[in-house]
Structure formats: C-alpha cells, structure tokens
Amino acid sequence: MIRTVPVTAFQDQKPGTSGLRKKVPVFQTPGYTEAFIQSIFDSLDGFQGQTLVIGGDGRFYNRDVIQTAIAMAAANGFGRVLVGQGGILSTPAASHMIRKHQAFGGLILSASHNPGGPTEDFGIKYNISNGGPAPEKITEAIYARTQVIDRYMIAKTGEINLDKLGKFEAAGMTIEVVDPVADYAELMETLFDFDAIRALVKDGFQIAFDAMHAVTGPYAREILVKRLGVDPACVLNATPLEDFGGHHPDPNLVHAKALYDLMMGPDAPDFGAASDGDGDRNLIIGRGVFVTPSDSLAMLAANAHLAPGYSDGLKGIARSMPTSGAADRVAAKLGVEMHETPTGWKFFGNLLDAGRCTICGEESAGTGSDHVREKDGLWAVLLWLNILAVRRQSVMEIVQDHWTEYGRTYYSRHDYEAIDTGQANQLVAALESKLDNLAGLQAASLTIEKADNFTYHDPVDGSVSRNQGIRIFFEGGARLVFRLSGTGTSGATLRVYMERHEPDPARHGEETQKALAPVIEAAEMLAEILKWTGRDAPTVIT
C-alpha cells in the first residue's frame, strides 16, 4: 500500500517567513508538492504514530494537496490526521487545534493574503507542536533536504471525503474530518466577555465585517452572528471561494477599499473590520478613522485588561522590528517587558512559550496573544469589540484618548512589488555599504542619529538572527526601515517603513503622508529607489 517514488530535487523550495509560496502551476509540476512535503517529514524526528493537523484557507488546489498530504502522512508513519471539514482551517484555528489535541505538528496550506486561483498563489507551511510556525533551524533543515531529495513516499488511501464529518481508517492511519470552527469558537468564549459584546450589539451598535470570500467567513458566522447576535447581513463576503471572488484577500486600504469607503461615509457603521485569506491578519476601522496595525497593537495592549482572558495584566509585549514604537510606550507605562523581533511570527514563539510576553503584533496587520502561536485576525476583532463594550466609547474616541496619553506615532509602509530581484539586492547592498558612515549626516531636513542592519538575539534560547532589515534612526525619534520581503511569489518586494512620533496633541490631525514627508524624502535620498528600480512611486501605500 506504500509506494516509494523517485523524484528529482527542485532547487527553488526555500521557505520564506511563512513557508513555501509559489504559483499554483509550479506546485502542479509533477513531484513538486510531494518533494516539499517529503522534505518536511524527512527533517523531523519522532512522529511515528503521532497526530498531524492539516487544513488550509480554501484557495484553489487546497483540496488536491490535502489528499496528497494525507496519503504521504500515512506512508511516513503518522498515526492520525485531523483535517478541517471541506479542507478549511484558519491558521489560528490550526494552531489551537495542534495545541488542544497535542498534535506533533501541522501542515497549513495557504499563501495568506496573496491572490488565489488556477494561475495565482499557493503555499505550504509547517507548524510545530506548540502550534507556531517552524523556527529557522527547522526551515533551514527542510530547505537543505529539498536540495538533495531523490524520492517521496505515498500510500494508497483513496479519495477521502473531506466534506463529511467523521473518522476513517486508511493505510493503517486514522483520518478525522473535524468541524474547523467549534474548538476555536469555544476558545474565544473563554477569553472575551461575550455577554458584554451581546449587550453592545443589542443596544444598536453596528458592525461590518468583511471576510473577503476567505477562510474566516464560517468563523464570523458562528461567532459574530450565532453567538453575539450580529445581523447576518453585516458579515460580508462570507463564503470561502477558491479564487476569493477574483479579489486580493489582503485586509488593507487598497484591497478592502469598499469597507473603507463604507466606514468613511455618512451612514457608516460603528465598527468595521476585515480578515485575510487564512484568517491571521486584521483590518480595524472605526467610523471616520482607520486604525493602523501598529496603533492597534498599542491600543489593544493598553486596554487588554478589560477582557476576562487578560484581566490579570500582561507579562510583556512583543513587536516585529518594522512595527512602529507605539507599543513600546505602552509597555513602559505598564512596566512590562518590550521585545523587538525580526519579521515572522515564528520569532514570537519562544517569548510566548517562556511567558515573556502576552500580546504581540506586526505592522503587516497581524496581532495575537499567548492563546495560540499564530497571529489571529478574528481574535483582534473580538478584543476590540470587548474594549468597546466595556468603555462604551467610539473607536475615534478611544484612538484620540490613546494619542493624547501616549502621543501619536505617524506610520506608513511603502511597498515596491515585483521588482527585479537583482536590482532589489543591489539597492540593499548599496545602502548597507553606507551604514557605518551615516551618523551625523543630513537627509532631507532630518539628521541621522545612527544606522544598522538589525540583528536579533533571542533572550530565551540565545539564537542569533542577522541581516533582518536596515534601520535608520533620526534625531527627534523618526525612523526608516528597508527590508526585502519573503512573502511574494514573483520578483522581489521592497518594503520601506516610515515613522515619526508626535507628542503634541495639537498636531495629531495631520494627514499621514504629509506628516511623514521629511522621512519619505529621506528614504529616496538614502536608498535611491528610482535609480535602482526605475520606480518613482510605490505599488501600495498602507
């Protein structure tokens, strides 16, 4: 019942910050998907007879790869597979399922916020037993194995009915098709005051949630509608589709423009939110105000004690390096640890496991806590609703109160997408060659205080991660960060992050790009983006 199939190694299977992402036709190359999954299994020890969780965001090719992964798990000796009904399982729900059922690990099939469809993106990510993304030592071992792999193992399991809940036996392995929402919804009830949120909704508080035809539709229906009483018509695009309805399931102001326009209009609901392809990112918009992910992290941390799950206070806060310093000011006031990590949720895992932080977040719309080991879009939405239910203020009032107390950190990210990889590498190399000589120089109207390429020293296991992004600090508190992203599937994406702290409440009403104009000008002067890439404007501004 088990076949060993020869395969030629593929040289392009290096995992990025969140697994391997390629176009669907690449994964459909004979042996490509199998070689990568086998490389994962070959890089692990001790899983014989253990449980593996498998699920994805429902994008095109999701079901096909799940069938392959189940057959390969059986061939390689796993004892049980838990798979979400219909192949659906949000990334945070998968993390919780791994933890709750003490699974050895999990395969999450998603390209997150990237488009889906026959010619669009697909991804495979391995999560370890704590529910979090595999750390670098494992992803490096996986990549090393992909370079030399010469065979994969697959069992004859037959077509598994992914739509029928129940337990099946195939090739000596137990396969359980489980409700993808139930465990997660029960966890949310333990963290948040659902009675208070229900009362808020009953009093006429209006919510608009855009599931973007992605994985969180079923979760929003169960939690927001069935358990909290939100009008079903307020959960938009709630049916997961293989191509996300032809849209880009990225909850930012470009791809969730319809929600943004609604929230800025004359008949706006009180609260608007969206999540992405696999449910781990979030967009928060109040009536007339967009809350940046960096600000959202800071505001959630400052108010988390209002939710039952965090009533004892926070152990610490963590943020990715490109995320603004807004949360740092909250940590200082609360007297708790503040951690700055490289981009990639896997870097929060050690801190969460060691009890060194409770809430963490990234500027790329990811926020979460120690309830799972992934960022969690719906969790962030529910924590905001819990805070609103207790404070009985508008989102705008909560934002303005926070800025008055902590100052406003103006923040923006400029993405230059699908640029030539060689040009992107030349730009970064040229900028890096200048770092040692930048201190004291003028850039636009700003004076450079210091510059470096961020190196992270993990305080838990002592591991060191170098070359995590170029940082340029200016006198007065402004900062620039340049980083090449590992989440795209074609070319390179240059991300430029800009921030400036403004303590004066009288100057908290400026338009963000205008407030950041000196920092934006300094970015072009220092990195010479036009010269190296030919781009005179970013693809996306968030």
Strands across the major sheet, in which order?
2-6-5-3-4-9-8
Largest sheet: 7 strands, mixed
Terminal CA distance reads: 52 Å
> What global shape is seen?
globular
Low-pLDDT residue intervals, each spanning 5 or more residues:
none
Output the radius of gyration: 23 Å
Share in β-strands: 25-35%
How many extended strands? Answer: 27
Roughly what percent helix? 25-40%
- Mean pLDDT reading: 96
Q: What structural category arises from helix and sheet content?
A: alpha/beta
Provide a count of the helices: 18
Describe this structure in words.
The protein is of the alpha/beta class and 542 residues long. Helix 2 crosses helix 3 (62-76), helix 2 (32-42) crosses helix 5 (136-146) and helix 10 packs parallel to helix 11 (326-334). The longest helix has 15 residues, at 62-76. The chain is globular. The termini are far apart.
TL;DR?
The protein has 542 residues and is of the alpha/beta class. It has 18 helices and 27 strands. It is globular, with a radius of gyration of 23 Å.
Outline the fold blueprint.
Elements: E1 2-6, E2 20-23, H1 24-27, H2 32-42, E3 51-56, H3 62-76, E4 80-88, H4 91-100, E5 105-109, E6 121-127, H5 136-146, E7 151-155, E8 166-170, E9 173-178, H6 182-191, H7 194-202, E10 207-210, H8 216-227, E11 235-236, H9 257-264, E12 271-275, E13 282-286, E14 289-291, H10 293-303, E15 316-320, H11 326-334, E16 337-341, H12 346-353, E17 359-362, E18 366-369, H13 377-391, H14 395-406, E19 408-419, H15 421-434, E20 442-443, E21 446-453, E22 456-457, E23 464-465, E24 470-474, E25 479-485, E26 492-502, H16 512-515, H17 517-527, H18 529-533, E27 540-541
Parallel strand pairs: 3-4, 3-5, 4-9, 10-11, 10-12, 15-16, 15-17
Antiparallel strand pairs: 1-7, 2-6, 5-6, 8-9, 12-13, 13-14, 17-18, 19-26, 19-27, 20-21, 21-24, 22-23, 24-25, 25-26
Helix pairs in contact: 2-3, 2-5, 7-13, 10-11
